[in-house]
Amino acid sequence: MRLSIPVVLLAMWCFVIFFGAHIVEPRAGIIDLTAINELPSSVHLLGTDALGRDMLVTLLVGGQTSLIIGIMASLIALVSGTTIGMLGAYYGGWFDTCLMRILDTMRAVPTLLLLLFWQAMTEPSFIGVAVILGAVGWLYTARIVRSETHIHATREHVLAARMMGIGSLTIIRRHILPYCAGRIRILFLLELSGAMTMEAAISFLGMGLPPHMPSPGTMLAHAMNGVLLGHWWQAFLPGMMLVITLVLVHACVVTMKKEAL
Fold first, then answer.
1. Which residue has the higher pLDDT, 29 or 111?
2. CATH topology of domain 5-29+45-260
3. What pTM value is reported for the model?
4. How many Cβ atoms sit within 10 Å of the Cβ of residue 103?
């Protein structure tokens, strides 16, 4: 993947969030009851929330939390989905049929409903949210990778490798996986945007991260009363941060799709 404007912008955006969060982390969570609901000023560049916490600090830490959860969930979904999709397509038969029936059954259940049910059964935590998002995110990846594997598994060099007695896992790793790498990179970005959106949704509903842990979802949940009182920045800023991140991710997806044509 060559460098392009969306890729550079996304890299810069992630760098600002991670580097900024690392700098301001000691100030994260500090409550100042004398600076509640302040407008943006020279002291607090983006204002404060209902607990007097600096919005810039909370935004950077929350953005870092959202990105880390999204990356972890995407890697879980990508590894499991790619493995299941490739093995099912390569071996075929009853093995592929059983995997696809399981996949179709899980896809019939709304993802958000499945997430809420699972979170209601467990204790909200950072790792738990990432694992659950990854566990429900592999379905789309598995189906796409399965289709790609079906295409490449019938190519002449793969058939020749089979005839030479090369092991199945070696064939998949050397002769099929490299041809699916471009599509897998796109799937990773799609999984990333989906995981970040789902994390914000379930955290907003109170079923995701603990309330004290900053993220766009928890910040939006805390800002509900503030918006009714005219404190617009408390909801606008975390929402805008999430939107900008998702727009940059999807711009990279569009660029990678054009390169693949």
1. 111
2. MetI-like fold (1.10.3720)
3. 0.88
4. 20
